Amino acid sequence: MNAMNFTEPEERGALRAAVAELGKKYGHEYYAKQARAGLKTDELWAEAGRLGYLGVNLPEEYGGGGAGIADLAAVLEELAAAGCPLLLMVVSPAICGTVISRFGTDEQKKRWLPGIADGSGRMVFAITEPDAGSNSHKITTTAKRDGDGWVLSGRKVYISGVDEADAVLVVGRTEDTKTGKLKPALFTVPTDAPGFEYQQIEMDIVSPEKQFGLFLDDVHLPADALVGEEDAAIAQLFAGLNPERIMGASFSLGIARYALGKAVSYANERKVWGAPIGTHQGLAHPLAEIKIELELAKLMTQKAASLYDSGDDFGAGESANMAKYAAAEVAIRAVDQAVQTHGGNGLASEYGLGTLVTAVRLGRIAPVSREMVLNFVGQHSLGLPRSY
Ligand SMILES: Cc1cc2nc3c(=O)[nH]c(=O)nc-3n(C[C@H](O)[C@H](O)[C@H](O)COP(=O)(O)OP(=O)(O)OC[C@H]3O[C@@H](n4cnc5c(N)ncnc54)[C@H](O)[C@@H]3O)c2cc1C
Q: Is 248 in the pocket of ligand 1 (CB under 6 A)?
């Protein structure tokens, strides 16, 4: 019988080490400074793209690294652990890159993937709507046939990074010609298309990536804006949503590692009663608990990524949900405890922790909320009745 292997492949270890070096070169100070000045982290994004990190999961023939989502997740985790959680990695290479690689035509792959892979192009992702939210069956953004092409109308909300994207992968619906029912379909919409407008939503998150409301008012799209089959969009959507959850987990895990690292260093140095404050179990035990929860969440994230990369979309779904949940919860706890460990310094800008208090709360809300994950586990993992 084969033993289960809990060691990452050597190449991934080397990738982590190289990405960690890049993250250290920029660091949280750079990230927070850019965010506070209303600027992006373009230099870091471009360098990560040039070094092949952003497209590590995309096919080699379109400029990617030919590896899997486990490797892309390792890249995001390491950058976040260095204090640079690049939110757009969740959408551009992970969701959009995956969906186009798996379901796009050769033409679509040639057009979009090389830019996504080398960082020169960005594609963001829009599913959330003001009146649908967690219930994506209720989305109303609709595409109507227009000769060979499409006309798309609707509204989206809380869409990350639209101002820095070339295009948005929009989840809309088309009408089934036989039944008249609406079914989901995915469209690439260039951000400069006539009829496409966006408006920034002010958020209390210190982040270089901004959030937007989208207004699609009779946006005319060519036939090849439709990605994949009109009839199989649910399956295609799920193919992109598992990587989204795995990357959401990695985003949280990296921030948890960053916060825990800072808390431990400070607890070892700061003395107010003669001995380092880490001597007090009131501070040491919560940090030890966070370390345990972090390792557990990381293991589940690795399991989800491994199942996804082996082609088990169904098995990956359960683990990806659990990983996203566990990683978000430990990240919230880690940042909170790191602030507490630092006393007053925990909220001083110089110590680089207060910036992350709302960033980690995002992990409990998006890409899928804590409650919707618990609904999934209750129903699918435990066999409880559906509650909604
Ligand atoms: C910073 C940020 C970035 C984002 N980026 C993107 C993006 O790039 N693209 C995109 O498409 N979306 C994005 N989102 C949207 C995000 O995915 C949604 O906010 C999230 O899915 C929750 O939807 P909602 O905000 O409409 O909340 P609602 O669906 O209104 O839910 C409100 C509350 O009710 C709870 N709830 C709802 N239904 C149930 C139920 N059946 N049982 C129990 N509890 C329930 C929820 O868990 C939540 O706590 C982003 C959000 C934020 C905050």
A: no
41 close to ligand 1 (CB < 6 Angstrom): no
- Residues 304 and 243 sit within 8 Å (Cβ to Cβ): no
Percentage of the chain lying above the pLDDT 90 cut: 89
- Phi, psi (rounded to 5 degrees) for 276: -55, 145
Residue 146 has pLDDT above 80, yes or no: yes
Count of residues making up the chain: 388
Residues 333, 251: Cα–Cα separation, whole Å: 14
Ligand 1 centroid vs 363 CA: distance in angstroms?
11
Report the C-alpha gap between 317 and 373 in whole angstroms: 10
pLDDT digits (tens, 9 = 90+) for 111-134: 999 999 999 999 999 999 999 989
Distance between Cα 92 and ligand 1 center (Å) = 19
Q: What is the mean pLDDT of residues 144-159?
A: 96
Residue 359 tokens read as 């960033």
State the Cα–Cα distance between residues 359 and 242, nearest whole angstrom: 21
**Closest listed residue to residue 256, CA positions, set 202, 173, 333:** 333
Q: Is the peptide bond before 93 cis (omega within 30 degrees of 0)?
A: no
Q: Which residue lies with its CA nearest to atom 25 of ligand 1?
A: 133
d(CA 38, CA 72): 27
Indicate the pTM of the whole model: 0.97
Strand ranges in 177-271 using DSSP code E only, listed in sequence order: 182-190, 196-201, 211-221, 226-227
Selection from 352, 345, 290 nearest residue 80 by Cα: 352
Q: Which conformational region is residue 289 in: left (phi greater than 0), alpha (psi within -120 to 50 degrees), or beta? A: alpha
The protein residue with its alpha carbon nearest to ligand 1, atom 6, reads: 159
